């Protein structure tokens, strides 16, 4: 377990190891209990949450309500650090926090944990807000309460609380170097050693800490530490660092602060100041819980916090195969130009999944099914894709699109002839109406639907065989034309005019194959972007491996296909099922009616098993 360190590059976050709030309407089936719900139920039953008062958000009209009874039965929060875009692991935490709050008639806060200025910026703040909204959650309430918070709004309060802790003898300024602090911290088997500065007087500590705040001491020259116990078996309790000197520009507070609080100091205070009742976090914070509780109890003694104090509960991180759930490693993919940006459709960021065409309802359903656990979870990507299919199948219109075209000529049709064919937009929803497209002498079919020397059991287009052109006619393949090099130029056939789909003659000829097609007379060229996993290995960063060394060089293929004319109606972000091909979405940014651009969301069936064989 990594502990706080004086240089504090990571602001002391543990290393990754492994009134209804805006809850979307379609949720939820039966609620499954879990250890978090049991803990909340017990807290509600014990009455310890009774009589809670409203914090009243400082700086808003809401501050008027401070001290009134809190309308929320419980409060949770989702506390991202704005140092990157959110990923699928965060979606788990978002769904958990917002849905629990909604289920209990509580409220969930969106709080930016922006205490580490060098890595954070406004672009990330905006992207995170966008992602949480898109997932379907909201932090504003009919009574006007808006629960969007920034840790940086509490910097002055954090500072005042630190002064109180110093006065009460619970904190001191340590002038050891970073290396000395590390050396004296001890190990898992050896206790730490007290700093020679541990017994500075309250007056001296106050003076030095005020000087730190005034910018009179350089980076790394001193830190504020809690005075707890250098011999504690829990290294986090060995006088953890609360504040460091960092003369860095902050994207919200500018140059106002030359000192920044550490995660272990800021996070519990943020929770308590917002009257969070249940602070849900991932398991790597378990060893920090004694510190969380110690700090809040000491601050409460000074009268700076209201009881009841929040309670931290840990759950296992959610991990997914073919995915990395670390903002730092995702950032490396962006910085190295391996993907086009944080929202590249191959990225398992929420913005990437959105651009890939994964519906938010599918992500929520997936997170719900993943459940809550204390044991680390690795879920198959195939499970997420299956959930996407499940959500899209009943929802989206069907289309014919040829993704790898070869020309088919109907010899017994006049070049000027146009037959208008019809197909339902959705096979199970006739009320959605029909789509119409032409059939003419020249069509496009999928290259793989033709075989000159077919394998056994091939029921599609092959010389002499009959096959149905979906929503059209039965045709009999008569042969192929080749170019000078012997390459197939086009396939030839004759159609059987009495076999039109939807007419009594349709069944007069029995065929085993049924292929899709579009007519050269009305087809629309469409750019197709087809994705495979970004990584070659299911666990790209297992065992500390660098995921950059595990990149699939063929994760993106771009092709031109031909689509039936309805594609012109597609709006950016609209999904379709391209019949027999897969689910596709009109690209959020690049698609236009004149120049359609589609991303493949997923195949119609699981393709993960196949890839390895
Ligand atoms: P990263 O390493 O990607 O930066 P983090 O946990 O450091 O992740 P934060 O922005 O601090 O990122 O996380 C916000 C919240 O999301 C935290 O409560 C964190 O525990 C939770 N979270 C992050 N990753 C996962 C995950 N894979 N599964 C469940 N919850 C997660
Ligand atoms: Mg992190």
TrEMBL record:
GO cellular component terms, semicolon-separated: cytosol
Location within or outside the cell: Cytoplasm
Domain Glutamyl/glutaminyl-tRNA synthetase class Ib anti-codon binding per the UniProt entry, residue ranges: 397-495
Domain of life the protein comes from: Bacteria
SUPFAM superfamilies, per database record: Nucleotidylyl transferase, Ribosomal protein L25-like
EC nos: 6.1.1.18
UniProt keyword annotation of Cytoplasm present: yes
UniProt short sequence motif 'HIGH' region, positions renumbered to this chain: 80-90
InterPro entries per record: aa-tRNA-synth_I_CS (IPR001412), Gln-tRNA-synth (IPR004514), Gln/Glu-tRNA_Ligase (IPR050132), Gln_tRNA_ligase_bac (IPR022861), Glu/Gln-tRNA-synth (IPR000924), Glu/Gln-tRNA-synth_Ib_cat-dom (IPR020058), Glu/Gln-tRNA-synth_Ib_codon-bd (IPR020059), Glu_tRNA_lig_a-bdl (IPR020061)
Keyword RNA-binding: no
Spans annotated as Disordered: 1-26
Pfam family, one: tRNA-synt_1c
GO biological process: glutaminyl-tRNA aminoacylation; glutamyl-tRNA aminoacylation
Catalytic activity: tRNA(Gln) + L-glutamine + ATP = L-glutaminyl-tRNA(Gln) + AMP + diphosphate
Domain tRNA synthetases class I (E and Q) anti-codon binding: 515-587
Feature: compositional bias, Low complexity: 8-20
Gene3D superfamilies attached to this UniProt entry: Glutamyl-trna Synthetase, Domain 2, Glutamyl-tRNA Synthetase, Domain 3, HUPs, Ribosomal Protein L25, Chain P
Molecular function terms from GO: ATP binding; glutamine-tRNA ligase activity
PROSITE patterns named in the record: AA_TRNA_LIGASE_I
Record keywords, A-Z: Aminoacyl-tRNA synthetase, ATP-binding, Cytoplasm, Ligase, Nucleotide-binding, Protein biosynthesis
Membership in a protein family: Belongs to the class-I aminoacyl-tRNA synthetase family.
Subunit and interaction comment: Monomer.
Name of the protein this chain belongs to: Glutamine--tRNA ligase
Native source species: Lautropia mirabilis ATCC 51599
Underlying gene: glnS
């Amino acid at each position: 377990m990594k502990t706080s360190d004086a240089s504090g590059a990571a602001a002391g976050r543990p290393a990754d190891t492994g009134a209804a709030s805006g809850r979307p309407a379609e949720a939820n089936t039966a609620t499954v209990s879990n250890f978090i719900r049991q803990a909340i139920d017990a807290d509600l039953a014990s009455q310890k949450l009774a009589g809670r008062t409203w914090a009243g958000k400082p700086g808003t009209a809401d501050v008027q309500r401070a001290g009134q009874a809190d309308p929320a039965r419980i409060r949770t929060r989702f506390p991202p650090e704005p140092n990157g875009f959110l990923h699928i692991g965060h979606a788990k935490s978002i769904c958990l926090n917002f849905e629990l709050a909604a289920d209990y008639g509580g409220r969930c806060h969106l709080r930016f944990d922006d205490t580490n200025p060098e890595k954070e910026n406004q672009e990330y703040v905006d992207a995170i807000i966008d992602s949480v909204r898109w997932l379907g959650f909201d932090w504003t309430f009919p009574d006007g309460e808006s629960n969007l918070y920034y840790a940086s709004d509490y910097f002055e309060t954090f500072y005042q609380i630190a002064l109180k802790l110093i006065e009460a003898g619970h904190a001191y300024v340590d002038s050891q170097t970073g290396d000395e602090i590390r050396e004296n911290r001890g190990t898992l088997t050896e206790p730490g050693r007290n700093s020679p500065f541990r017994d500075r007087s309250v007056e001296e500590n106050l003076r030095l800490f005020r000087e730190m705040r005034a910018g009179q001491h350089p980076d790394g020259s001193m830190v504020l530490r809690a005075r707890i116990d250098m011999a504690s078996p829990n290294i986090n309790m060995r006088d953890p660092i609360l504040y460091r000197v960092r003369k860095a520009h902050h994207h919200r507070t500018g140059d106002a602060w030359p000192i920044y609080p550490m995660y272990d100091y800021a996070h519990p205070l943020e929770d308590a100041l917002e009257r969070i009742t249940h602070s849900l976090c991932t398991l790597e914070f378990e060893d920090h819980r004694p510190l969380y509780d110690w700090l809040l109890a000491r601050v409460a003694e000074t009268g700076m916090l209201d009881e009841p104090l929040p309670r931290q509960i840990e759950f296992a991180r959610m991990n997914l195969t073919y995915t990395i759930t670390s903002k730092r490693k995702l950032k490396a993919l962006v910085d190295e130009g391996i993907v086009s940006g944080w929202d590249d459709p191959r990225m398992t960021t929420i913005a990437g999944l959105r651009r890939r065409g994964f519906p938010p309802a599918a992500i929520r359903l997936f997170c719900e099914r993943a459940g809550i656990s204390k044991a680390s979870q690795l879920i198959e990507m195939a499970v997420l894709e299956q959930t996407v299919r499940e959500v899209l199948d009943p929802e989206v219109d069907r289309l014919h699109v040829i993704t790898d075209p070869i020309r088919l000529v109907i010899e017994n049709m006049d070049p000027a002839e146009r037959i208008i064919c019809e197909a339902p937009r959705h096979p199970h929803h006739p009320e959605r109406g029909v789509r119409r497209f032409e059939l003419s002498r020249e069509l496009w079919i999928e290259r793989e639907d033709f075989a000159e020397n077919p394998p056994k059991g091939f029921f599609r287009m092959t010389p002499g065989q009959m096959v149905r052109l979906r929503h059209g006619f039965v045709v009999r393949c008569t042969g192929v034309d080749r170019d000078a090099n012997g390459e197939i130029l086009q396939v030839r056939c004759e159609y059987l005019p009495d076999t039109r789909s939807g007419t009594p003659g349709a069944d007069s000829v029995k065929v085993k194959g049924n292929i899709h097609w579009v007519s050269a007379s009305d087809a629309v060229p469409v750019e197709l972007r087809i994705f495979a996993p970004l990584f070659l290995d299911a666990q790209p960063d297992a065992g500390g491996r660098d995921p950059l060394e595990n990149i699939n060089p063929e994760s993106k293929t771009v092709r031109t296909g031909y689509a039936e004319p309805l594609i012109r109606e597609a709006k950016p972000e609209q999904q379709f099922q391209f019949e027999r091909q897969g689910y596709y979405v009109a690209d959020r940014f690049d698609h236009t009616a004149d120049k359609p651009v589609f991303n493949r969301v997923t195949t119609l069936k699981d393709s993960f098993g196949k890839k390895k064989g």
